[in-house]
Design brief:
The complex is a heterodimer. By secondary structure, chain A is of the alpha+beta class. Chain A is built from six helices and three strands. In chain A, strand 2 and strand 3 form a beta hairpin. In chain A, 40% of the residues are buried. By secondary structure, chain B is α/β, with parallel strands linked by helices. In chain B, strand 9 and strand 10 form a beta hairpin. In chain B, helix 1 runs antiparallel to helix 9. The longest helix of chain B is centred in the first third of the chain and has 20 residues. Classes of the chains: A alpha+beta, B alpha/beta. The interface between A and B is medium-sized, with 21 and 18 residues.
Chain lengths: 127, 383
């Protein structure tokens, strides 16, 4: 895959105008992950509403791939049941980037998923 | 393709690859063990490589020990020298400019001895702060472990002055020359370094081979760090008589092909001349500072080509260096982005990562024009 496949219009759009960027007031959990090797860091804020729907937002200091991945993930997760969010995985992330990417950049793309999943498991432990 | 990651590893001339192939095809045998023609030829090639490599850095041949590379050499030195000279509460000095390989081994080993590792800051020109080193020496530091050339900024340390200051107070000087020997004329005796480490693969040679240089009288006094075949003259059930250095420090079958490859690499560099290599890199630096600089590009470190080796680290404002690197890659330009195994230094620049273009004798000013064009393109798309 070439850089222009990786930086598709959709990815660039999510990078320039990240959706659900910021904190969630009264979040049930906050989960932060960082990739020390490149300096990416991303924080997910998660709250489960009374009807069991998930609300997630994020902040990040990161490369375009990491930020776009976080933004697209929040779109996938928001408003869904916690169990559905918990079922999201690597393939869902890669699909947003056209199916595959090189192993170095894959780490950037998967960092937000790790942060979100860690938030989900914290909520599950302390519902 | 344009290769601008020679500080990571250099490309290899055909001559070097052929020398390695020739060894395996025509002379393959173990060294110093068997009285047969092949072993004699292999041993002769191995010895001759060591001789040429030693002469390349101004050393005697018995002062050059083959290792796996710079990291291996520095780990060995940190372990053996710390055990020998650093007692409880005593200090080893290093700097913020170090690659992790000249920081972590010392930290771990010094801690084991109950000593203290002092990391001195850089001066305002991003060179090792000589005054701070001197202050630590005055307080009794036993070892100064210092980089020859920063792998992030390309700044060159004044080894001769550091050695002079250290020797005045009886301290040892260990030099990480992973980015020095490949890019500068080096004369170890003139520099005064007690020990110096470098890798073959960053200087046109193969991976898996490197050098630990040590002054003869110091190597003579060191205890071997590994034991086995090849490093002993005789063994009885009770006792052993060790070989003289450097054989004493090369237990087991050595990396014969690697040593031969590095010998060929050194021949290549010698035929070009290290002064010419340095001059060429200065030309390239002058050019890259010129073409890369725009108001959106921050270049780190001093801009004095004659005081630097061929490395330029930079960031494009508002764009993560990983994104820059991926964009350049699409234009066929290979650079590296990240902390370059020198996290404390990169963090002290006020960032968590930088993009690094590093060059060597085979790069041209056109390569750097392409770099600048591609960086501008990345800015247009991402910034």
């Amino acid at each position: 895959m070439t850089a222009s496949d990786l930086y598709s219009e959709r990815v660039l759009d999510h990078y320039r105008n990240p959706r659900n960027y910021g904190t969630v007031e009264g979040a049930d959990v906050v989960s932060r992950e960082e990739n020390l090797s490149c300096g990416d860091e991303v924080t997910f804020y998660l709250k489960v509403d009374n009807d069991g729907r998930t609300q997630v937002r994020f902040t990040s200091k990161s490369c375009a791939i990491c930020r776009a991945s976080a933004s697209m993930l929040t779109e996938l997760a928001n408003g869904r049941k916690l169990a559905d969010v918990a079922a999201l995985g690597r393939d869902d992330v890669l699909r947003m980037f056209g199916g595959s990417m090189d192993p170095v950049r894959e780490r950037c793309a998967l960092l937000p998923l790790a942060a979100m999943m860690s938030a989900v498991s914290k909520v599950k432990k302390n519902p | 393709m344009i290769y601008l990651d020679s500080a990571g590893t250099s490309q290899k001339p055909k001559r070097v690859i052929e020398a390695i192939g020739d060894f395996y095809l025509q002379y393959n045998a173990n060294v110093f063990r068997s009285a047969n023609t092949l072993s004699a030829e292999a041993s002769e090639l191995y010895i001759s490589s060591r001789r040429r490599i030693a002469s390349f850095i101004g050393a005697n041949e018995d002062e050059v020990v083959f290792t796996k590379g710079t990291t291996d050499s520095l780990n060995i030195l940190a372990r053996t020298l710390t055990e020998r000279c650093v007692g409880k509460g005593e200090k080893v000095v290093t700097s913020i400019l170090e690659h992790h390989s000249n920081l972590l081994p010392w930290r771990i080993e010094v801690k084991k001895q109950g000593g203290e590792l002092v990391v001195v800051r850089a001066d305002k020109n991003w060179r090792v702060d000589l005054d701070k080193i001197e202050q630590e020496l005055e307080k009794g530091a036993k070892i100064v472990a210092i980089t020859h050339v920063s792998n992030v900024l390309g700044t060159v340390s004044d080894i001769a002055t550091i050695a002079q200051k250290a020797h005045k107070r009886g301290a040892l000087v260990v030099v990480d020359s992973a980015q020095g020997v490949p890019h500068l004329p080096v004369d170890v005796h003139e520099s005064g370094a007690d020990f110096l480490a470098f890798s073959g693969h960053k200087m046109l040679g193969p991976t898996g081979i490197g050098v630990l240089y040590g002054k003869k009288e110091l190597l003579d006094s060191l205890t071997p760090w590994e034991f086995g075949g090849g490093m002993v003259r005789s063994v009885t059930l009770e006792n052993e008589t060790l070989e003289d250095p450097p054989g004493r420090f090369e237990a087991g079958t050595p990396h014969i092909a690697g040593a031969i490859g590095l010998g060929a690499a050194v021949d290549y560099l010698k035929s070009v001349g290290m002064t010419s290599v340095k001059k060429h890199e200065e030309e390239l630096l002058r050019h890259v500072f010129d073409v890369l600089q725009t108001e959106d590009v921050e270049i780190y470190g001093p801009r004095e080509p004659n005081a630097l080796c061929g490395i330029v680290s930079f960031n494009l404002k508002g764009v993560h260096p990983h994104d820059v690197s991926t964009f350049l890659d699409q234009d066929g330009i290979m650079i590296r982005a990240g902390h370059h195994c020198a996290q404390p230094l990169v963090n002290s620049l006020g960032v968590s990562a930088v993009a690094r273009a590093s060059f060597y004798l085979y790069n041209t000013t056109e390569d750097l024009d392409a770099l600048a064009t591609s960086v501008n393109r990345a800015r247009d798309v991402l910034a």
